[in-house]
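In this notebook, the sequence line spells out the residues, with the fold written below as integer tokens. This is how one looks.
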Amino acid sequence: MAEDRTGGNTIHIWKLAVLIVGLAAFVLLLGDVTGSYRLEGVDIAVCTAVQSLRCPFLTGFFKVMTNMVHPVVLLIISMAMIHTLRQRQYLIALFVNLVLAVLLDLAAKGWIMRERPPQGQQMIAETGYSFPSGHAMLAASFYGFILFLIWQTKKSRTYKTAGTVICLTMIVLTALSRIYLGVHYATDVLGGFLAGMIYLIIYTSVARRYFAKGIPGRGQSEAEINPLLKSFQYAFAGIITGLKTERNMMIHYSALGLVVVFGITLKLSVTEWCICLILCALVISLELVNTAVEAVVDLVTKEHRRRARIAKDTAAGAVLIAAMTAAVIGGIIFGPKILALFALK
């Protein structure tokens, strides 16, 4: 027990040290970019080096990566993480972090009022000021917290290592995209990283206490809940259950995430958005119905009966037909646009 406390104290000391160093670095960086700007040479050298790599394929790639922190994309990723983070307290902490990270990003937009790089360097249209980079800050705070949650689970070390590599890659590529596309200086990205790291240290410290304390009991009995609210509660519970238990739901939400990322990047028309979202909703809804059919059949009988098999196979077939149709229509809509984005035609 004494060893655990010693280890916990060591972690707290390290976190406090990193927090203090991060705050000091951010303050010094802020003073430089708003004052003497002695790091101008570093900004010029980094921007020149990164932007010298510009080619049609990389331009398309980084236009996609820069949208990996769009709030809608992060919401979909949060929904997909439900399959991994089975405990309710992890899910609550994840969604609270999403809201706080987006609010932090919005709050930082007009704070320093540093002008962006010259328009001649910018490959995409951006509004607002430059320091700190909201994309770098949002990537560090969101994907960093997912990384923290992954290491709280009881998954295998291989799973955790893969999750670490993916999260760190997303953070680095999202930040790098801002320099490549010419909408931020290197110091903007560094400032965003530092701000995200400071926020992450504070939030994870609060989250640890929350996990240790557990979720308090509900204050209201089900009889006291409004019938309309109760129906919504049951519906959301069904969605969450489907996400937790059905592996295919991870595939569907991953596909939805890709649709949103590429849709934002390729600037789909209103009609195209409607078609894509209706198809995604149809496939996910049918998957939930398929889960319900399987549960009812298993509840009625555990024996291998012909009618039970027909019910399960038919429900699964409906999902497959919808998914194949969505894939074909998605190919028709996205295929030519993706080829043009990556200059493959």
